[in-house]
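Minutes, project huddle
Topic: does the predicted pose make sense with zinc ion bound?
PN asked that the exact inputs be recorded in the minutes so nobody has to dig through chat later. Recorded below.
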Amino acid sequence: MFQKIIYKNSPILIQNLLISTRAIIRLRLRDNTESKCFLKRIENNEYNKNTLDSYVESELNSVLINAVENTTFYEEYDASDLESFPRLTKESIKADPSGLRSKNKPKVIVNGSTSGTTGSPLMIPQSLESVVKEFAFVKRLLEWAGYKKGDKRAWLRGDLIVPLEQKTGALWRYSFFEKMLMLSTFHLSTETMQQYIDKMVSYKVDIIQAYPSSIVLLAKFLKENNDYYPSRLKSIITSSEQLTKDDRALIEERFKCKVFDWYGLFERVAAISNCEHGRYHLLTDYSYVELEHVSDEVYEIVGTNFNNKYYPLIRYKTGDQVVLSDEKECPCGRVYPIVKEIKGRQVQHVYNTNKDKVFALDQCVKEAKGIIGSQFEQFKYGEITIHLIINDEFNEKQKTIIEKAVKSRLGLEMLVVFNFVKELKKTKSGKSIQAICHIKGTQ
Ligand SMILES: [Zn+2]
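Predicted holo structure (tokens), as shared on screen:
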């Protein structure tokens, strides 16, 4: 919506109304009786191991039976034996995307795509049931973070709510019904940071939901000025990128509240959430997770989706890793296993035409077809190279789509250079990273 001409050309008040209307439509769809009942059901799992175990067993059984009975991809497998199922990868889904669709087509299908950290887009259709259940899990996380109905929130995530052409004035918008102040991460710079903090204080924000990379910039700014967030916050919720220990400590120190970090992925095959005691809990009622040994204490997350029977993903290899904890019990009393550390999800930045850092570039290739892999590399200000691995579906139109998306995020004057490759550059640990920046930054 934010890139549509009608939104960009509207006065701020109308933009606020458009954002609020969109929010209320989305809420109507998600926040219904079914979602509330489901939330109650998963809340019963939190403190009772027997209830949790029987919930997991019944969900896993029903997912496997559904997959074998209703999809061609899984019809040959034994529903009573998870181990007989193969590991699923992004590539195996792409090789047979329709094989995973259930014969039972739901009335409403929500199509979404992700490119993840390796920059290779993947389309995953979801049933409405999946969307509603996801909402219940998000609500549970909000509750863990102290959210109560009526609380005000600030939103500092990668939405293009303020057009890039706008350089001054209000760099935020409002979602009235959600009581949410949405601040543009694309306009976050040393010149604007004090305004962002002042705005959140005057709006009386209770909880901030942010990308780690955005909120840590504000924490660093406060530290440089020998300052602290001058008001009381209940908590800060972060997700979508790796949150380092140092960044968490700095955010908690400068904002004087707890950080609740959430790990999830669009494939919805695993979720890990912080509790109020700072432990990471692997949410075993969200999906069925198998931890596959990589090295020493490091394990890869391989997950089976519980809630999207229209497109069942079984034993999906996420490429993300965790370090297990020695702790068997958490002071919070919840019975979910504890994870010491989440690896992966490291998101690198590049610089926009204002020489400010921009993260989450995977969004730029989401809309284009025919992309097997993508990677951004920047050698100098004002120019960005996109390395692309493509297939036959890619054409000039896709190039235009990507160029437009890149310019909308990095600035209209950004020079976009395409480079078609067979392989993306890798880190020492063999991971393809989304962005490589060779500029020594100003921030
Ligand atoms: Zn806990």
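Observations noted during the meeting:
- The mean pLDDT is 90.
- The pocket of zinc ion is lined by residues 275, 277, 279, 281, 330, 332, 334 (CB under 6 Å).
No decisions taken; revisit at the next huddle.
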